[in-house]
Amino acid sequence: MPAEQQSAARMCASCPKMCRSACPTQAVTHNERHQPWGHARQVVAALREDEGFVDPELVDGVYACATCSACTPPCHVDGVETPDLVWAARAAVHRAGATPAAGLESVRQARAGMVPSPDGAAEMWTDPAATLGRLRAMATPGADVLLFPGCGALGRRPEAVLAAGRALRALGVAFDVAVEHRCCGMPALTFGDEAETTQLLSRLLATLGAAHPGQRVVVQSPSCAWMLGVRARQLGHDTPDVEPLVATLARALAEHAADPREHEARRVSYHDPCYLARHQDVREQPRAALAAAGYTVTELRGRGDTTQCSGQGGGLPLTHPDLAAGYLRLLASQVGAAGVDEVVTGCASCAAALRGAGVPAVELAEAVAAALGAEEDEPR
C-alpha cells in the first residue's frame, strides 16, 4: 500500500471511533470489524504479514463498505479519508490475487461495455445500445452539452436516461451523445484493479476529448460524475468541463420561463446520493431544481452530511447483498417516516433500488420531465 495510506490506517486504528455511529455497515451488522476502525485494524495487521491481504476476514471487511463517506464528516484526523483507505486496501487485495470473483466479473463486463441490469432481469448484465439509440434520437449533433448517462443510469434505470433527454429538450438545452458507450473505470476502482481503472478512464477521456473538444460533459450517474470530475484529476488526467446532471437541470429550470404542470406540484422528499452530497458537495442544486419544477420538498431525517446511503455503491450488492439490503431498509424507514407521495433522488441506481423495495421513487430527471409535461418518449 502507498505510504500515506499505511499511515492513514495506523491513525484510524488508533482513533477512539469518532465515526462509529455514522457508519451504515456498523448499524446493520453491529460487528466491530465492519466499521472504519475495524477495517483499519485489519489493514494494520495485514501489513505485518507476508500474505496478510489474502486473509478471508480482511477481504470480507474491506468489501463490507459502500464507500459512502458517511464516516468522513465526523472524522477530524488529517490524512485519513476512509474511501481512499478502502480503495488502497482493495488494490492490495487485488495485487495479492484475492479479489472476490463477483468483482472480477464486474470489471470484465465493464471492459466489454456492458452495464448492470435492472432488478428482476434474467441476466445480471445488459447492453445499453437500445437505450442509447433512443437517447441519440433526441440529440443535436455538435451541441455544446454532451450528455453522459453512465453505467448505473443506463443499466439500473434506463427510464431515467430517456427522461433526462426529454427534460433537457423541454428546457431548451441542446445536447449531444457520445458515439460509443465507454465505462469511466469506477467498477475497476471499486474492485482494486488500478491498471484497469487507468485504462478505462483514459479510454473514455480520449473518446470525450477527441470527439467533442470544448464541450461541457453533463454526467447523470453520480459516481461517474465524481470519477470524471474529481478522481480523474487526482490521478493526473486532463479532464473536460464536467458537471452533474442535477446541477445542469437546476440552472436550466431557473432560466426557464414556462410554469410546470400544476397537477404535478406535490410534496416529495429528496434523497441525497452519497456521491453527490458527500463526495461532490452537490446539495442545494437538486432541491432548487425540484422547487423550480413546482414540487414542495420535505426533508428526510438524514440529508447532506448525514444522508442515508442506499447501499448501491462500493460493490456492496455484489459482495454483500444482505448488507446492501440492510442499508436500503434504513433508507426506506426514513422515507416512510416522512409520509410523502414520492421520494426523488439524484441517483438512478438509488431510485431503482428503492422501487425494488416497494418505495415510490424516481430519479430527479424523471420528476423534472413529468413536471414539464415531457413524459412522452421520442419515436423509436
Report what the structure shows.
The chain has 380 residues and is α/β, with parallel strands linked by helices. It has a four-stranded parallel β-sheet. Strands 8-7-9-10 form a four-stranded parallel β-sheet. Helix content is 50%, strand content 9%. It has three domains: 3-98, no CATH class; 103-249, no CATH class; 259-371, Rossmann fold (3-Layer(aba) Sandwich).
Write the layout of secondary structure elements.
Layout: H1 3-13, H2 24-29, H3 36-47, H4 56-63, H5 82-95, H6 101-111, E1 115-116, E2 125-126, H7 129-136, E3 145-148, H8 151-156, H9 158-170, E4 175-176, H10 186-190, H11 194-211, E5 216-219, H12 222-234, E6 241-244, H13 245-255, E7 267-271, H14 274-280, H15 284-292, E8 296-299, H16 316-319, H17 321-338, E9 342-345, H18 348-356, E10 361-363, H19 364-371
Parallel strand pairs: 3-4, 3-5, 5-6, 7-8, 7-9, 9-10
Antiparallel strand pairs: 1-2
Helix pairs in contact: 1-3, 1-5, 3-4, 3-5, 9-19, 12-14, 13-15
Summary of the model, kept short:
The chain is built from 19 helices and 10 strands. It has about 375 residues and is an alpha/beta fold.
